[in-house]
Fold this sequence. Notes:
Elements: H1 6-39, H2 43-80, E1 84-100, E2 103-111, E3 121-127, E4 140-146, E5 149-155
Antiparallel strand pairs: 1-2, 1-4, 2-3, 4-5
Amino acid sequence: MELYTQQDLQANQAQMRGVLWRTGILSALCVAGIVASLIIRSEWLTVGITIVWGALLIFLWDIKFAPVYRYRRYLRELLGGLRHRTEGAVVSLAQEGTYKEGVFFSALLINVDPKMDPEGERLFYVDRCKPRPELAPGDRISLEYHGNYVTAWAKQ
């Protein structure tokens, strides 16, 4: 099952444009408020609007823009990078998530050794924004990956 396509990148770009437009509109309103407060010569209002604007920009950067931007970098790397293929048996698929480079993943541990030697275990990361694979320990799977990020998987 292929996890990523160019449509994912286009959807992410549309989401980023939306975040930037909303931030621009809110910033324009704050700038208009600052200009108005300067015209009426109200120092406390100018300071107050400037503080609110700064807090708004910091909040929007951390909550809205940064996650979308990190996911965009992740998608570009996956779609343009070299992919490898391996096969193995599932050891575990974590229920809890983990952040890696600003993206939320589930850890997938597979054993690529035909004799199931513990030395053959490899750790991969499965994107939590994609449908979670229904895998049980012992299932044989085929993985396509970039680095240690799963880009496609199939049960055997």
